Amino acid sequence: MLELSAVTLAYGPVLAVSEATLRIGQGEIVTLIGSNGAGKTTILRAVSGLLAPKSGAITFQGRNLGRLSPDKIVRLGLAHCPEGRQVLASLSVRDNLELGAYIRSDTAGIRQDMELVFDLFPRLRERAAQLAGTLSGGEQQMLAIGRALMCRPKLLLLDEPSLGLAPIIAQGIFNIITNLNAQGVTILLVEQNAHMAMKIAHRAYVLEAGQIVAQGQAKDLAGDERVKKAYLG
User: Fold this and answer.
1) SS3 (DSSP) at 105
2) Which CATH number belongs to the domain containing residue 170 in this structure?
């Protein structure tokens, strides 16, 4: 579904990712793990069209994303749930969700999908009229995921969904990610909590200083002594 072929990314003269090659097949949860600054978020930004590759190719369902604007990439069926949630604090929960469907014009379908999001996140239904900035961290993460789902993505990019959340809330978020995948959503997951990411992912890639240094089935990498020592404690 998504392929990166020898992709190199940089911020001006600063090299962030060097010749990364990875793929995500339809129906998978694939996780990227690595320390802060390893290049995980940079890869998601490139896939979303927020950062142009210096070299290499990014393709989604066979289409090269290299020259497409972010809004056109969303229209292809790719949604990005960014680190830090980035909900629109001064707007209501309902308004945030409606903005997630900005590429759509099917009013009835939008209403139906909002009900599905409310079914998935009952707390959001209770707080539909509440300003997003007044929600708890966990509720804002639910809203960020729900907003991304409103464009009916084929591939969902999740950047640090458990960041700053209490363990019990984080566990609930991971349960929801697993549920979404069971419903057919393909997921590329960037996550500092490598333990939990490895538990729910099918496959994993390990990034160090902008380079992919290991890849394979998540359960196999979770048992790799080098990976365990560096990332799993």
Assistant:
1) coil
2) 3.40.50.300
DSSP string, 52-94: --SEEEEEETTEE-TT--HHHHHHTTEEEE-TT----TTSBHH
180, 156 contact by CB (below 8 A) = yes
Where residue 188 falls among pLDDT bands split at 50, 70, 90?
very high
State which residues form the domain around 100: 87-138+145-151
- Count of domains observed in the chain: 2
pTM metric for this prediction: 0.90
CB 160 within 8 Å of CB 83: yes
Burial class from Cβ neighbours inside 10 Å (0-12, 13-18, 19+) for residue 210 reads buried
Q: Using one digit for the tens of pLDDT, what is the confidence trace for 66-87?
A: 889 999 999 999 999 988 778 9
CA distance 140 to 163: 12
Q: Which of 190, 189, 109, 101 has the alpha carbon at shortest distance from 146?
A: 101
Is residue 166 located within the same domain as residue 73?
yes
- Asked whether the predicted pLDDT for residue 127 surpasses 80, the reply is yes
What backbone torsions phi and psi does residue 224 show, to the nearest 5 degrees?
A: -75, 125
The two structure tokens encoding residue 28: 């998978």
Same domain, residue pair 157 and 228: yes
Residues across the chain: 233
